[in-house]
């Protein structure tokens, strides 16, 4: 890379390009940190993506130390000197892990979580945390402790969640790449609503530690988000890999998680699940937007065919509710040991806890049997198709002042998370799933489409997404209005 080819502002580059520039000594770690902090100072007060920021002097001293290491010929890895913010559900030593809860505001992590430790070992500099909903519940990033994170493309709208802070930080170029986590679409939904790529890895691909439970809590997983598929793949490779602390983690394949390998899109058969034959209510324009994305995949040579789920989605939802309630309730229960804490916990979290109290072991096992049947059905679909596709969200980014959508297309939502039902299928089956951009509506709001891969097929899914990325440059080029001098909000593309 030649210095003349670099933009004046290094924050315009994605993480892979920055890594190359830093290692070629075209950009210093100090210069990058200064540019990053200047952008954070300008934009973060309005959008509220990053929280618990570290002092500038400390960060610049770390950047100087990284530069000194490079001068001695030593690189820690591809993230050497690159600013990073850890999602506020995960530990980063010396920083608060608040979970977005006022009850946790004074908890300072004594050591890094496994994901943060691996990213630090690859050279990143942690500048703070990214905002999340309280306990990560609900795909709308707001909490009483830090407030609401606003959508990068329309600050009157929700950023999605629970990795909403990470997504907005990426879209506004506050960070070059971001970590997050995904239980019920928490990497995918905010990526869709901020014109990004967000990957939920295969179950066990990215081990989570510390963890309250090592055996059942596999619906949630940490993972990567980025402005390019290459960045997503590289961060996943950093986060992934077996750990003795996580007995169900995947032992092999982390070194093969590349988006750069040779790929023939003409061999890919995509099953389009759409709205599950009308079962999932969708706001107007979402299926059409996904149709645009599917057309781009067909232009690559992929075969796209309409597909039915082949199992009653009501059964899947009912089993999902049992699993979710039990797992979420276990996280909330320790805080409820003090009765006074109840008044400081969001009502949606209390509802999850209370719903779980009536669940017997027999009911949980019955839900597990249904989940097993659903997994087998997904395998049957994936025998005939390499990839399954469906929208990432059932609504466009909604008013940031709302807690959650009460209805979709005239249908009432009976729970605070029913509007997110479209994301449960990859989660419940433990399959890799990436959300890819599919353009914008007439109001300039972004949308995404989920691509679900075969078991442990993260690498093949990334290669397909990388091929798709090459034919959606017009959508990816649309930046938030705040980044475009003198421009009004995005026009319909």
Distance between the termini: 32 Å
Question: What gross morphology would you assign?
Answer: globular
CATH-derived architecture: Alpha-Beta Complex
Roughly what percent helix?
25-40%
Parts with pLDDT < 50 across at least 5 consecutive residues: 486-493
Let me know the largest β-sheet. Answer: 8 strands, mixed
CATH class value: Alpha Beta
Number of E-type strands: 15
Q: Quick one: CATH superfamily? A: Amidase signature (AS) domain
Q: Please, how many helices?
A: 14
CATH topology: Amidase signature (AS) enzymes
| DSSP strand content | 5-15%
**Strand line-up across the major sheet:** 6-8-7-14-15-11-9-10
Integer average pLDDT: 95
Radius of gyration: 21 Å
Q: How many domain modules?
A: 1
Query: What is the chain-wise order of helices and strands?
Result: HHEHEHEEEHEHEEHEHEHHHEEEHEEHH
- Quickly give the structural class: alpha+beta
Your description of this structure?
The chain has 14 helices and 15 strands. 34% of the residues lie in helices and 13% in strands. The relative contact order is 0.12. It has a single domain (3-483), classed as Alpha-Beta Complex (Amidase signature (AS) enzymes). With 493 residues, it is α+β, with helices and mostly antiparallel strands. α7 (229-239) packs antiparallel against α13 (458-469) and α9 crosses α11. It is globular, with a radius of gyration of 21 Å. An 8-stranded mixed β-sheet has the order 6-8-7-14-15-11-9-10. It has a 3-stranded mixed β-sheet with strand order 1-3-2. The protein has a two-stranded antiparallel sheet with strand order 4-5.
């Amino acid at each position: 890379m030649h210095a003349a080819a670099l933009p004046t502002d290094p924050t315009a580059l994605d993480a892979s390009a920055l890594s190359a520039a830093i290692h070629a000594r075209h950009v210093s770690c100090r210069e990058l940190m200064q540019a990053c902090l200047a952008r954070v100072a300008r934009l973060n007060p309005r959008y509220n993506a990053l929280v618990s920021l570290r002092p500038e002097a400390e960060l610049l001293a770390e950047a100087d130390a990284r530069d000194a290491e490079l001068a001695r010929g030593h690189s820690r890895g591809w993230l050497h000197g690159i600013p990073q913010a850890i999602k506020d559900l995960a530990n980063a030593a010396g920083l608060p892990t608040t979970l977005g809860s006022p009850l946790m505001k004074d908890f300072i992590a004594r050591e890094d979580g496994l994901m943060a430790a691996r990213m630090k070992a690859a050279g990143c500099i942690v500048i703070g945390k990214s905002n999340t909903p309280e306990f990560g519940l609900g795909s709308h990033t707001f909490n009483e402790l830090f407030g609401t994170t606003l959508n990068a493309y329309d600050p009157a709208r929700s950023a999605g969640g629970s990795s909403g802070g990470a997504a907005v930080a990426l879209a506004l170029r506050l960070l070059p790449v971001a970590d997050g986590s995904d239980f019920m679409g928490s990497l995918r939904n905010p990526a869709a609503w901020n014109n990004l790529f967000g990957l939920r890895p295969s179950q066990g691909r990215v081990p989570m530690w510390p963890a309250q439970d090592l055996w059942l809590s596999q619906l949630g997983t940490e993972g990567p988000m980025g402005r390019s598929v290459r960045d997503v793949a590289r961060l996943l490779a950093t986060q992934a890999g077996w750990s003795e602390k996580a007995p169900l983690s995947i032992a092999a394949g982390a070194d093969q998680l590349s988006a750069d390998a040779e790929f023939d899109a003409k061999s890919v058969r995509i099953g389009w699940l759409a709205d599950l034959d009308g079962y999932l209510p969708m706001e107007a324009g979402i299926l059409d937007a996904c149709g645009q994305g599917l057309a781009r995949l067909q232009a690559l040579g992929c075969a796209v065919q309409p597909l039915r789920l082949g199992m009653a989605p009501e059964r899947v939802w009912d089993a999902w509710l049992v699993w979710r309630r039990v797992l979420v309730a276990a996280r909330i229960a320790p805080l409820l040991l003090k009765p006074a804490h109840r008044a400081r916990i969001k009502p949606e979290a209390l509802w999850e806890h209370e719903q779980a109290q009536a669940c017997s072991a027999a009911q949980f096992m019955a839900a597990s049997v249904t989940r097993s049947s659903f997994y087998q059905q997904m395998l049957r679909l994936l025998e005939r198709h390499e990839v399954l596709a469906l929208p990432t969200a059932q609504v466009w980014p909604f008013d940031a002042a709302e807690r959650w959508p009460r209805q979709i297309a005239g249908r009432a939502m009976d729970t605070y998370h029913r509007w997110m039902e479209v994301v449960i299928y990859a989660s419940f089956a433990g399959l890799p799933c990436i959300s890819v951009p599919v353009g914008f509506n007439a109001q300039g709001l972004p949308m995404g489409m989920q691509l679900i891969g075969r078991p442990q097929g993260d690498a093949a899914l990334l290669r397909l997404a990388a091929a798709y990325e090459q034919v959606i440059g017009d959508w990816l080029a649309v930046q938030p209005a705040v980044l475009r001098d003198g421009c009004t909000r995005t026009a319909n593309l």
